């Protein structure tokens, strides 16, 4: 079924200016998720990068500091959900969990470092995250049997650190 061009325009506007997910946009414009995804893909092939347009809209509308804050918040949410999944996984051995936690902590530290460069106010948080990453590496190397307990503590502690230093 062909959709009116207005639907595609509305979908793009919702993605770029309202930062809605493709799923929500599909419901809003009464099109399937596959259709909206195809519109986005086709637009990219024609030189219209919806993701880049969204980033530019966020930057111009809110300023660089707000964008770096948004990036950090998005990453923290992803980090927390991944930590929850790793912690709950019963098919991952403790040593593997320790390795995953170490890698996640490393990614977290690198992201915080990059964000701190874009927003100096977040520098304290970046330092705190680096310390957490060092602790995760220490636990992985010296106490792999404690990976589950460490993961259980690290997640809420990370939230507390973000509140205190972010």
Structure characteristics:
0% strand; single chain; elongated; 166 residues; 8 helices; mainly alpha; 3 domains
Structure characterization notes:
- The protein starts with a helix and ends with a helix.
- The chain has 166 residues and is an all-alpha fold.
- 83% of the residues lie in helices and 0% in strands.
- The mean pLDDT is 82.
- The protein folds into 3 domains: 2-59; 65-118; 121-165.
- It has helices spanning 5-18, 22-29, 33-45, 50-62, 64-88, 94-118, 123-142, 147-165.
**What is the end-to-end distance?**
48 Å
Q: What is the rounded Rg? A: 20 Å
Shape: elongated
SSE arrangement, N to C: HHHHHHHH
Indicate the proportion of strand residues: under 5%
Ranges where pLDDT stays below 50 over 5 or more residues in a row are none
| Number of domain modules | 3
On the 0 to 100 scale, the average pLDDT is 82
How would you sum up this structure in a few lines?
With 166 residues, the chain is mostly helical. The chain has 3 domains: 2-59; 65-118; 121-165.
């Amino acid at each position: 079924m062909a959709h009116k061009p207005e639907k595609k325009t509305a979908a793009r506007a919702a993605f770029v200016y309202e930062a809605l997910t493709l799923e929500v946009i599909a419901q809003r414009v009464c099109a399937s998720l596959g259709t909206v995804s195809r519109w986005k893909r086709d637009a990219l092939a024609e030189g219209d990068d919806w993701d880049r347009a969204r980033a530019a809209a966020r930057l111009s509308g809110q300023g660089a500091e707000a964008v770096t804050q948004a990036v950090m918040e998005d990453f923290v949410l992803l980090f927390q959900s991944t930590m929850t999944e790793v912690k709950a996984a019963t098919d991952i051995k403790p040593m593997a969990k320790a390795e995953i936690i170490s890698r996640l902590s490393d990614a977290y530290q690198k992201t915080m470092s990059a964000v701190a460069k874009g927003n100096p106010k977040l520098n304290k948080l970046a330092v705190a995250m680096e310390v957490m990453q060092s602790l995760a590496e220490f636990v992985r190397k010296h106490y792999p049997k404690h990976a589950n307990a460490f993961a259980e503590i690290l997640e809420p502690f990370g939230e507390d650190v973000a509140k205190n230093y972010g």
